[in-house]
Design brief:
210 residues, mainly alpha, Glutathione S-transferase Yfyf (Class Pi), Chain A, domain 2, two-stranded antiparallel ribbon, 4 strands, globular
């Protein structure tokens, strides 16, 4: 969203393997100790920095700040927000659980793997059906809903899924990958991981500060 909107920003990596998310400085901005969080130093006349945590809230805040990627027409806005919260309440949590039990859990629990795997496949089918109806993007025009959903589809191979089984998602995924701002955003993640690897950490995650 920051790349798409052109807002000036500085990326601040948060090393979750070292517990940076529990540091007092970060907790001030993100009381749930999760990434991402942003701090807007240009939040209006009051002059005090304004912090926002949780991905969905951040995307809505930036869309309203810039007047972009969230329709003003009530029906179109409703649709974009529906699909944003579909990701927040469905795809994100379910794909996260599926990835955990499939890849990281010390004990392979067949029920959990089957339960979350089936739910992720169901959600992919829901998304495929929506894209069959709307065409290029999830809510019609390109919006924060697409931005929220895309990172979870990036992990489809690790989730044990093939996009060939979801042709409309596959088409949409290719369209998203071709956007220069999406490419730039993905590069920020790679750069932050490289920076952390130099400090002898194998992986990291990044939060952003606007």
């Amino acid at each position: 969203m920051l790349m798409e909107s052109g807002l000036p920003h500085r990326v601040v990596p948060v090393n979750i393997r070292q517990g940076d998310q529990f540091a007092a400085g970060f907790t001030r901005w993100s009381p749930n100790n999760r990434i991402p969080a942003i701090v807007d130093h240009d939040a209006g006349e009051e002059g005090e920095p304004l912090s926002v945590f949780e991905s969905g809230a951040i995307l809505i805040y930036l869309a309203e700040k810039t007047g972009r990627f969230l329709p003003t027409d009530p029906r179109a806005r409703k649709t974009a927000l529906e699909w944003l919260f579909w990701q927040v309440g469905g795809l994100g949590p379910m794909a996260g659980q599926n990835g955990h039990f499939l890849l990281y859990a010390p004990e392979k629990i067949p029920y959990a793997i089957r339960r979350y795997g089936d739910e992720v496949r169901r959600l992919y089918n829901v998304l495929d059906g929506q894209l069959a109806r709307t065409g290029a993007f999830v809510a019609g025009d390109y919006s924060i809903a697409d931005m929220a959903i895309f990172p979870w589809i990036v992990t489809h191979k690790a989730q044990g899924l093939s996009l060939a089984d979801y042709p409309h998602v596959q088409r949409w995924f290719g369209t998203m990958r071709a956007r220069p701002a999406v490419t730039a955003g993905m590069e920020v993640l790679r750069e932050s991981r490289t920076l952390t690897a130099k400090k002898d950490e194998p992986r990291s995650a990044a939060g952003s500060a606007a």
